[in-house]
Specification:
Blueprint lengths: L2 H19 L8 E5 L5 H9 L4 E4 L2 H10 L7 E4 L8 H4 L5 E5 L2 H13 L5 E6 L16 H9 L4 E7 L6 H17 L2 H4 L2 E3 L6 H6 L4 E4 L1 H4 L4
Parallel strand pairs: 1-2, 1-8, 2-3, 3-4, 4-5, 5-6, 6-7
This protein binds pyridoxal-5'-phosphate (PLP).
Length: 226
């Protein structure tokens, strides 16, 4: 078994165990393999091991890898990095799900670009800066209601949930995941916002316990980044 295939199997087993511990169906938790900074060959290897959802953080890198891997028919790209409006035109034709909408102006631009690229309606999540950390992107909790309404108002976008980047500290990460779930409850619940994108290599078990439907795992699959 290749290193990547073995690591993937291990991560899937971690998700399965965490789901069992939380009495959740593991099929309701999607693994997004975060391939930023890793070569297209590594993505191909993971694909051959059965992985289908991949996450990228940088628009240009996404474009290059999508081109290099255009022969893989079922590969689904997720955009998980901070997205500037002027890069929306690069990402909208490729990504199946954008995890990081954080302003009404980005929502508008993405809607426009999705329509132009024939990708309407494009599924998006709204990123929330739950902890209010200054260096993090995402809407503040007190801006969330307005931003969700702005995304809903875009005819070429489909709002499917919320995303957050947790703090490194595991106790703080748990509080952030619980808060994201609470924000969802106050914003229409799972009927309006079925997806919660939270959890990474170090904290995916906590995220699954807190209701994550998408976990974004990079280094545990592809190894440490330079
Ligand atoms: C890099 C990154 C990840 C993956 O982090 P790991 O700790 O390597 O699993 C997940 N989400 C986002 C938004 C990232 O930028």
């Amino acid at each position: 078994m290749s290193t990547i295939a073995g690591a993937l199997a291990e991560v899937r087993a971690r998700i399965d165990r965490a789901a069992a511990a939380a009495a959740r169906d593991p099929k309701t938790i999607r693994l997004v393999a975060v391939s930023k900074t890793k070569p297209a060959a590594a993505v191909r290897e993971a694909y051959e091991a059965g992985q289908r959802d991949f996450g990228e953080n940088y628009a240009q890198e996404l474009v290059e890898k999508a081109e290099a891997l255009a022969d893989l028919p079922d590969l689904r790209w997720h955009f998980i990095g901070h997205l500037q409006s002027n890069k929306a035109r690069l990402v909208a034709p490729i990504a199946r799900l954008i995890h990081t909408v954080d302003s009404p102006s980005l929502a508008r631009e993405l809607g426009k670009r999705a329509a132009k690229a024939g990708r309407s309606p494009l599924a998006v999540l709204v990123e929330v800066n739950v902890g209010g950390e200054a260096q993090k992107h995402g809407a503040r909790p007190d801006e969330l209601a307005e931003l969700l309404d702005a995304v809903d108002a875009e005819p070429d976008l489909t709002l499917t949930g919320l995303m957050t980047m947790p703090p490194h500290d595991l106790d703080a990460a748990r509080r952030a995941f619980e808060e994201l779930g609470a924000l969802r409850e106050r914003s229409g619940g799972a009927a309006r916002l079925p997806e919660l994108s939270m959890g990474m290599s170090d904290d995916l078990e906590i995220a699954v316990a807190c209701g994550a439907t998408l976990v974004r795992v990079g280094s545990a699959i592809f190894g440490a980044r330079a």
